[in-house]
Automatic annotation (TrEMBL):
Domain Probable transposase IS891/IS1136/IS1341 residues, every copy: 269-375
GO terms, molecular function: DNA binding; metal ion binding
Recorded family membership: In the C-terminal section; belongs to the transposase 35 family. In the N-terminal section; belongs to the transposase 2 family.
Domain Transposase putative helix-turn-helix: 7-43
Gene source species: Rothia nasimurium
Residue stretches making up the Cas12f1-like TNB domain: 402-469
Alphabetical GO biological process terms: DNA recombination; transposition
Protein name: Transposase
Pfam families: Cas12f1-like_TNB, HTH_OrfB_IS605, OrfB_IS605
Length: 485
């Protein structure tokens, strides 16, 4: 019998030494270079393919015939085929590392750098000095990006159509590197793992504030690694780890694979069954209205820091590019934005955990956040109205982070034996009476109290919507609706 497995991620903020931080920077830099190199190659392949296809159409072929001809040409001419990460490693990375290594050896032997390394993109050879896995990580990211774009164009990927993968720029793109396990051995370890060979410590890690990471050695963590150690001890396996940087802070995320019984509660508890299903109506004025009558206030983390953020951005706009003051202000802004993001995530984690652990089921709406936050300015042909007010509403919607709340509920309900039901976005939950089912033909946003003309039921409009969501969730879960006023 095959054991069903599941995955769980653990994220820790790191406290690296200066040497380790330099290694992090070098590794994510190498990954970025690899990403850009493979992306550039594949964009050139696409450009050449489009040029040939356009020529075929100009010669009289239909679009369908041109596409069929291009499919045939790609089989015959590999230069017209998208390059995979593996092919790039074999045909580009390996020779490039060897070339850098040979050039570095000649320079070390005394040859003038001008004769060995002239006309090169980089000031000196360095590919050979970085672990190969750093480049592989960037190439894998580039291959995934082009694959996602192709699926999006073909209509095989949900959401809006994606644009072509863009190049990453130092200081502006998200820095990260992922090291997978390919041989069954763990690339990382916590309590009980051996120290890396050559480190001053001997024996094994004996506290819950250190992680041994391949390529980087033993790194100190701010938060405890005890939950990770417990899961690995019980039979979990670390499949990969990702080093990333947010603002000026370094993090590691470890993906652990384990039997599903170690990660997911098999079913709801008696307390959850007694509590029943809860309906959640997400909003801006209040972050959430619950079908039990509770209102969860919106902390408005961005709004509280907006004035300070605006002042810093004004100061930044007045600085000279390349100046130390500009770099200092950019770091201040990124730290503040990072703080806001952490506050928002913590607030949402608190709410979603309480919902997942308390109730047998949680119902939410499938909100079209992209449509709700569409640009307020509009276009030249169709200019926007009430632009300032709409921009403020967009900002407040994004500050609540409906998508983050849904994502947290999706995995937490599985963890705690609950069930998440997502109600269709076109269900009239605001206009329907949660008691008798009567429908209002019109309900303006100014009406904050729902009054049913059929049964005279009155309630806060958001609470009424939450009750409708609960009723629909109970129906979806096959439970008897327990409508209560």
């Amino acid at each position: 019998m095959t054991t069903e497995i599941a995955h769980k991620a653990f994220k820790y903020r790191l406290k690296p030494t200066q040497t380790q931080e330099n290694a992090f920077r070098q590794a994510v830099g190498a990954a970025r270079v690899a990403y850009n190199m493979l992306t550039a190659l594949n964009r050139d392949v696409l450009r050449r393919g489009w040029e040939i296809r356009n020529q075929l159409i100009e010669q009289g072929l239909s679009e369908a015939e041109a596409s069929a001809q291009m499919k045939k040409l790609r089989k015959e001419d590999l230069s017209l085929k998208i390059m995979s990460s593996f092919a790039w490693q074999k045909d580009v990375l390996t020779p490039e590392i060897a070339r850098h290594k040979q050039a570095a050896a000649r320079i070390a032997a005394g040859d003038p750098i001008e004769s060995v390394w002239s006309g090169e993109r980089f000031a000196e050879p360095w590919f050979h000095a970085v672990p190969r896995r750093a480049f592989v990580s960037g190439a894998d990211q580039a291959a995934t990006a082009i694959s996602n774009w192709m699926k999006s164009v073909a209509g095989q990927r949900a959401g809006n159509k994606m644009g072509l993968p863009r190049f990453k720029k130092a200081g502006r793109s998200h820095d990260s590197i992922t090291i997978p396990v390919v041989d069954g051995s763990s690339p990382a370890g916590g309590y009980g793992a051996s120290y890396k060979r050559g480190e001053p410590r001997k024996g094994f890690i004996q506290d819950h504030h250190r992680l041994r990471l391949a390529m980087f050695g033993t790194v100190v963590t701010y938060n405890s690694t005890a939950p990770l150690t417990q899961l690995v001890t019980q039979g979990g396996t670390i499949k990969s780890f990702t080093i990333s940087r947010d603002a000026q802070y370094w993090y590691v995320s470890l993906l652990v694979e384990a039997p599903i019984n170690l990660l997911h509660r098999p079913g709801p508890t008696k307390a959850q069954e007694k509590a029943g299903v809860i309906g959640v109506d997400l909003g801006v004025k209040a972050k959430a209205a619950l079908s039990n009558g509770e209102i969860i206030n919106n902390p408005r983390h961005l709004q509280l820091s907006l004035k300070r953020l605006a002042k810093l951005q004004v100061k930044l706009s007045r600085t000279q590019k390349g100046s130390k003051n500009r770099e200092h202000l950019k770091k201040q802004i990124s730290r503040l934005q990072h703080k806001i993001a952490l506050q928002r995530a913590a607030s949402n984690h608190q709410m979603t955990k309480e919902l997942s652990t308390t109730y047998v089921g949680v119902g939410i709406e499938d909100l079209n956040v992209a449509g709700m936050t569409k640009s307020a300015s509009g276009t030249l042909e169709n200019p926007g109205k009430n632009v300032a007010a709409k921009s403020g509403l967009n900002r407040n919607i994004l500050d609540v982070s409906f998508g983050q709340i849904r994502n947290q509920l999706e995995y937490k309900t599985k963890m705690y034996g609950s069930a998440l039901t997502v109600i269709g976005r076109y269900e009239p939950t605001s206009k329907r009476c949660s008691q008798c089912g009567a429908m209002k033909s019109d309900l303006s946003l100014k009406e904050r109290t729902y009054i049913c003309v059929e049964c005279n039921y009155q309630d806060d409009r958001d609470i009424n919507a939450a009750k409708n969501i609960r009723n629909l969730a109970e129906k979806e879960l096959g439970m008897v609706s327990s409508i209560s006023s």
